[in-house]
Amino acid sequence: MASSINRRDWLRQTSMTALGLGISARSIATVEPSWDRIRETENGLINLGSNENPYGISPNAKQAIIDMIPWASRYSFNLDSLKDAQSTIAKYYGVTEENILLTAGSSIVLDLMPRILYKPNANIVTAEPTFFILPALSRKLGFTVNALPVGPDRGLDLPAMLSAINSDTQLVYVVNPNNPTSTYLKPAAMKNFCQEAAKKTAVLVDEAYLDFLDAPDNESMIPLAASNPNILVTRTFSKIHGMAGLRIGYIIGHPTRIQQLGQANFSESQVAISDLTLAAALASLKDEEYRAKVKQKNAAARAYTIKGLQKLNINVTPSFTNFIHFPLGNYQGDFADFMLKRNIILRNYPMAKEKWGRVSVGTMSEMQQFIKVMNETWKG
Ligand SMILES: Cc1ncc(COP(=O)(O)O)c(C=O)c1O
User: Fold this and answer.
1) In sequence order, what are the residues at sequence separation of 6 or more whose Cβ sits closer than 8 angstroms to the Cβ of residue 178?
2) Are 343 and 15 in contact, with CB atoms under 8 Å apart?
3) Sequence ranges of the domains in the chain
């Protein structure tokens, strides 16, 4: 394969100019992420509803996509720079290729797990509230979903989840940090829980937001997953890597589990991901500087927003993620609908005892706009 320099030159001379875009490939790639602007959606809204990364993808990932465009007619296994993508990602997490299944976003895995585990009378144990995809599909398939309410601190109630496991439990689904409550469990508690639960059934730990934590709290359960066939970990490039639209996630587990999942999915899983996405993912993994900056920007905008909400006497749940969970108290009506009329997309859901809102952490300017609207309108 031509070197990346050759590819870049080729591209500069052809695709961009041929497309009449009037901009060079390099000019797109070297554009710094705009760290502090309002990024409205196509219809002029500020989208704080899906926990996306507001800063865009890493500049290195952008460059990798541009460099890959000329090769997009090839399958990734025919490209030197991509044929080992799966093992490169595995290696990054200290496991082998046999331990990983790449999917077009981790939602695929959340859909796949209940499908392969279903049997009549089976149940799934999880928390309430938690990320909806796996519990919702499980109910549709006919599982009983035993969703244990979060505690008064809105954290997952691990002892209750552990005692809820019975001989019909096919899976325990733990999201850590949890979406939507933004709480997290310390590594020691998680390890203990996984090991105990795995004596009885399969455990899937969803670490979509773990990258937003600092060491030592950002310790993954991946090492347990690699050795214990009953423990699995799923992660995604959609959050800190900012690649939600590029669609890549993965599950890590014991080779027997990964084989079982791969057969149900598509055994050549790497072919299920586009060349452009694979190239971006590999470049993004290497760009630790970008991720550190995202984390720092996220923490600053999050602290600002939490302070702003607290000034309105809102009892915000401490957040360890890129979103903030807060109770709506006696708020009457549909809060998300109210905010939408003010051009801000966020979420609200009923919980067992109270209504709550969830706002994703956008750029500082976006959060300033959110707090401005809150200051003007919040009546508690
Ligand atoms: C906890 C959790 N897991 C998984 C996902 C899905 O991510 P992906 O884009 O990889 O499908 C999300 C998305 O918001 C999430 O919140």
Assistant:
1) 127, 130, 131, 150, 155, 156, 184
2) no
3) 76-286, 290-377
How many Å apart are CA 98 and CA 255, to the nearest integer?
Answer: 5
| Full-model pTM | 0.91
CB 64 within 8 A of CB 283: yes
For ligand 1, is residue 249 a contact (CB within 6 Å)? Answer: yes
Q: Is 107 in the pocket of ligand 1 (CB under 6 A)?
A: yes
Superfamily of domain 290-377: Aspartate Aminotransferase, domain 1 (3.90.1150.10)
Whole-number Å distance, alpha carbon 201 to ligand 1 midpoint, is 23
Within 10 angstroms of residue 173's Cβ, the number of other Cβ atoms is 27
Amino acid, res. 183? T
Structural fold of domain 76-286: Aspartate Aminotransferase; domain 2 (3.40.640)
Q: What is the pLDDT of residue 266?
A: 74
User: Which tokens is 22 given?
Assistant: 């009037």
C-alpha distance from residue 2 to each of 5, 10, 283 (Å): 8, 10, 18
Q: 196, 165 in Cβ contact below 8 A?
A: no
Counting as low any pLDDT under 50, the low residues of the chain are 1-31
33: phi then psi, degrees, rounded to nearest 5:
-55, 140
